Amino acid sequence: MASIRVLSGHGRYTDPWHPFAEGSAAIREILEAVGHRVEVRDDDVSCLQELDALDLVVVNLGGNVEVELEHDDEWAAAQHEFGQWIRGGGRVLAVHTAANSFPDWPEWPALLGGQWVRGTSWHPKRCIATFGKAPGAEDYPVWTGLDVVTVYDERYSDLVVHEGSTPLIRHELSEEWQVMGWAHGDNVIYDGMGHDARSYSSPSHRKFLINEVDWLLS
């Protein structure tokens, strides 16, 4: 049994397009069902503090491209604390819009191992989509018991994967393969799925999420 905190977009790191509360509630339900202790915390400064007792942080936060965030000393200090925790081996599962979150924290993309680049990255309309194994990830533990993930979701495209990250999951769009998730080191995973609760209702997505958490905690 692990102690897990889900960071849920609500204030500073939310947007008008994603129902973060319902996604976070679905993540909590899935992980509690396999025995973990899970707390969901809205995005106030304290959500990035007092991390030492945690086994895993799930980042379900957004970033509104239409809002320019002003510098905030308290948030900057909390982000520094979170970054130190990650660099010290703290385990992070970042989902969906987390690749576009913390626009006021320049270090976040390097810690995550990739990013959504505003003006470059994009996605077509939500649909029933099939995500498969990225080359080299065929035997990765996140794929235990799965060949593909089929889910109603957004297909993030033209994400930037940093050198040193290992692509895990991809989709095909207009006859081109698009990386949708990766591992960065042995303690960080980014998973581009998870627009809303409907995404987490997919049995294969639920299995993939549990596999990600099992691997991060192993």
UniProtKB/TrEMBL annotation:
Organism listed in the record: Cutibacterium modestum HL044PA1
Pfam families: ThuA
Domain ThuA-like stretches: 20-215
Domain of life according to the entry: Bacteria
Protein name per UniProt: ThuA-like domain-containing protein
TM annotation in the entry: none
